[in-house]
Task: inverse folding
């Protein structure tokens, strides 16, 4: 992302060179540093950044957890975790990275220990000649966000000699009220430019490419409106069930876990107006405007589902209520289908269909832009000549890229029309892509908030879905390995055919 002015810890504006090959020296504290998120995502991403020369060699990483561990034992476990995720590790690179890893015990309640912890990291900064730039990464359960952030603030650790930033993983609250309370607490100790609410979906290359695809290619932008687009479908499907997340999922469900954040971010990137610049605040302003234009969601335009027994890749799987940790009479939704309308000049009358589910037929994240059919079908007079609408399919996973579906004449004397595709795949053009956490961690170190969630967007998103949380639709069941409940087709307008894929 290009360089944009952003605030330092004291609130003053500072221009940061986003093209610099290496970030400023800093100290990153990972609260929950021995947890799954740290070992699977954060530490491997930091290692890759160090490999690429994007992480300053003086930067130090401090993992904090409840257990008492010597540095060497933590380094051993950390490098084992990194080797599981990163294939090309050299002995020299591993040794160099491990030297900058440290471990400190930090027990709960955090408030009782944070002042002493602050003295320890200040001593480490002095020993390593660091300028006082700090990142506090809350890789913690949701209920620990507020006490950890408060303890950091009360201990005065948000005001160091350099800049200070705090990173909060989703979920950002459980509903509108809790999101507002979390925002209020964070703002008590941190300025908004210091707060990085991380949504890993926004770090995917194809998600970032949505705006480039639209705004750098007039062929698409001139068609990106209600005159040329009939509907938009956004699907995120998983073949996995709740696995080990049953305790969290029982209190969350698919709407909170996926729709309120991931799918709504995709909706905003597709529907937003062109920003005045490619800076963080200009882009985030336009995304908030989209949410403010979404019409209230009614029960007639929403469907909740829950998976039952079925087959995934030919193997039998149990239903949601049979999963370990799930109540046998649970009404938690594992599938959501929605129809949204956006009342503005660009999108009035164009339905946006959102669908997300677990234990679906295929792992897939895609956006389908369905263009309108030709106003006059001059080919209908020819037998078997069925002309389909043009469609742009943007795939976010597993094979990042897009397909443009268009109509051509089949060879021969008879008039026959066939659909063909132009396709682009990132892997074919550029090779392996950086992980989402590499992208997002680098942006945090640079201070670029373009791909992060702003407070007003967060609260507006919760406000949008509040009616469904307060009065959820009747639950429909679907067999594992399918594309969701049959009744999901009723969410679509009759002339819009079927969900893609189905």
Result:
């Amino acid at each position: 992302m290009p360089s944009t002015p952003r605030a330092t810890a004291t609130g003053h504006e500072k221009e940061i060179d986003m093209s610099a090959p290496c970030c400023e020296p800093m100290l990153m504290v990972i609260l929950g540093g021995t947890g799954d998120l740290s070992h699977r995502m954060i530490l491997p991403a930091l290692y890759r950044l160090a490999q690429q020369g994007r992480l300053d060699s003086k930067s130090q990483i401090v993992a904090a957890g409840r257990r008492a561990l010597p540095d060497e034992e933590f380094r051993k476990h950390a490098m084992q975790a990194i080797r599981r995720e990163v294939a090309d590790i050299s002995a020299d690179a591993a040794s160099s990275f491990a030297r900058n890893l440290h471990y400190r015990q930090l027990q709960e309640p955090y408030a009782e220990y944070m002042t002493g912890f602050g003295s320890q990291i200040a001593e480490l900064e002095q020993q390593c000649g660091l300028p006082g730039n700090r990142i506090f990464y809350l890789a913690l359960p949701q209920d620990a966000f507020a006490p950890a952030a408060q303890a950091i603030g009360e201990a005065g650790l948000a005001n160091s000699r350099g800049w200070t930033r705090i990173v909060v993983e989703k979920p950002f609250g459980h509903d509108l009220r809790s999101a507002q309370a979390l925002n209020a607490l964070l703002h008590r100790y941190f300025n908004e430019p210091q707060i990085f609410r991380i949504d890993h979906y926004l770090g995917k290359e194809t998600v970032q490419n949505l705006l480039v695809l639209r705004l750098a290619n007039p062929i698409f932008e001139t068609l990106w409106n209600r005159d040329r687009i009939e509907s938009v479908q956004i699907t995120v499907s998983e073949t996995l069930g709740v696995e080990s997340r049953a305790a969290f999922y029982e209190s969350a469900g698919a709407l909170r876990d996926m729709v309120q954040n991931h799918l709504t971010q995709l909706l905003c990137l597709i529907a937003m107006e062109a920003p005045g610049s490619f800076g963080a605040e200009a882009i985030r302003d336009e995304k908030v405007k989209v949410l403010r234009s979404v019409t209230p969601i009614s029960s007639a335009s929403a469907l909740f589902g829950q998976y039952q027994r079925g087959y995934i890749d030919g193997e039998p799987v149990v239903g949601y209520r049979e999963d370990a940790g799930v109540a046998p009479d649970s009404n938690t939704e594992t599938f959501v289908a929605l129809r949204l309308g956006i009342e503005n000049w660009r999108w009035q009358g164009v339905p946006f269909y959102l669908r997300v589910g677990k234990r679906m037929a295929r792992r897939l994240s895609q956006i389908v832009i369905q263009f309108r059919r030709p106003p006059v079908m001059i080919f209908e007079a020819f037998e078997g000549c069925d002309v389909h609408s043009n469609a742009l399919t943007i795939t976010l996973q597993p094979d990042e890229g897009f397909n443009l579906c268009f109509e051509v004449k089949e060879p021969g004397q008879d008039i026959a029309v066939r659909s063909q595709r132009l396709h682009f795949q990132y892997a074919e053009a550029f090779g392996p892509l950086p992980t989402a956490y590499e992208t997002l961690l680098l942006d945090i170190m640079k201070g670029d908030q373009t791909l992060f969630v702003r407070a007003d967007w967060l609260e507006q998103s919760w406000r949008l879905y509040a009616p469904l949380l307060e009065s959820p639709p009747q639950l429909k069941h679907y067999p594992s390995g399918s594309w969701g409940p049959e009744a999901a087709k009723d969410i679509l307008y009759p002339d819009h055919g079927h969900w893609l894929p189905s």
